[in-house]
Amino acid sequence: MTKYVEIKHTVNRVSISDFGQLSSGESTQLFTLKNTIGTAVSITNFGGIITSIKTQDNNEIFADIVLGYGDIQSYEQDPYYLGAIIGRYAGRIDQGKFKIADEEFQLTLNTPDSQLHGGEKALNKQLWQSKTFQNEMSSSIELTYTSLDGEEGFPGNVTFKVLYTLDDNNQFTLEYFASTNKNTIVNLTQHSYFNLAGHNSGNILDHQVYINADHFLPMCERVYPTGEKRPVVGTAHDFTNPIDLRTLGDEINGTDLQVTLGLGYDNYWLLNEECLSGEVLVAKAFEKTSGRCISIYSDQPSLILYTANYIDGSQIGKDNYCYQPRAALCLETQRANSLQKGCSLDNVLLTPKEDFYSKTRWVFSCV
User: Fold this and answer.
1) Catalytic residue (choose from 191, 199, 207, 215)
2) 3-state secondary structure (DSSP) of residue 200
3) N or C: which end of the chain has fewer CB within 10 A?
4) Domain spans in the chain, listed from the N-terminal domain onward
């Protein structure tokens, strides 16, 4: 049962403040959306980054439940994509090469053998244009950015728009839009790192998770999907029980080959067909001590559960806190793979004839 206390006085739903200068000299801003419950989500127009999400626990105490930094300079140097919009292509592209029809494209490489998450200066490192809106039930920030033909090696001019909305039902909606003048590929996600006990509360091994997926994609030693579609039943990747949620710590240090290869959880789950309506629960994470829960709904066909395996203690975050491995979990909905088409470029092709749109909802609650 949700134990939220509604704030009775009039809420100033949107506030805007300076967030410092980039190394280029450009100024950034921080936008905070707030609802009548007191939930507050802060976003910067640099990378569309969610810097903070403050929600109540079961004692009506607010805490910030996402990892992040307190200044723009740290986000400019951030190697972990904390809270950012990821694109043009979320994930790894082997050798940075792909084909559309018979034409091959060579992308910039930002790892020794691949392009990861869109390249060196991808959507997470760009300054977006911004607008804010509010009404009696919600507030929104609209972010837009046009990626020019050839940026990081991708073909086509692509105009991206992301709309973040927080409402009084404690629902945070993420809507993605993209249009192009040339055939290209697009795979977008949001890379917030959640620790429902609070961003500075240690690891997430006691968090419990549900994923509405009967299949996942195993990966090879180079951390690429093998192309096999494997049932989750009987594996460490079975999070299908919506009542008795699986605890992350149960198998994360076990002998399962996939968990060993990823240094924790870091696979694609192929969401069940019923999820694609956007109205059926896709995933859920729950932290027992605080009672905080996040429920996710999405029309995207796949999801990555990532348990912050590569955070190494070298980054000082908000409140001067040093983040360690497995300090958070990500639940990244995206279109890179699907139950119907598996690992296929068809999932991510964007053409001038049809714009891209997708919607994901995060619902915060407390029990």
Assistant:
1) 191
2) coil
3) N
4) 14-190, 208-314+331-345
What pTM did the predictor assign? 0.96
Q: What is the pLDDT of residues 71-94, one digit of tens each?
A: 999 999 999 999 999 999 999 999
The rounded distance, in Å, linking the Cα atoms of 338 and 205 is: 28
Bridge partners, residue 304, by sequence: 268, 332
Contact 323, 304 (CB under 8 A): no
Residue of 275, 10, 311, 297 whose CA lies nearest to 136:
10
pLDDT digits (tens, 9 = 90+) for 331-348: 999 999 999 988 888 899
The one catalytic residue among 151, 251, 287, 332: 332
Catalytic, 191? Answer: yes
Helices (runs of H) and strands (runs of E) counted in the chain: 2, 29
Q: Which residues contact 365 (CB under 8 A, 6 or more apart)?
A: 2, 170, 292, 293, 294, 295
The half-sphere exposure of 80 on its side-chain side, counting CA atoms within 13 A, is 29
What are the structure tokens assigned to 101, written together?
């029809």
| Alpha-helical segments (H) within 139-280 | 257-262
Whether residue 274 lies in the annotated active site: no
Q: Which two tokens stand for residue 263?
A: 């240094």
Domain made up of 208-314+331-345: CATH architecture: Distorted Sandwich (2.70)
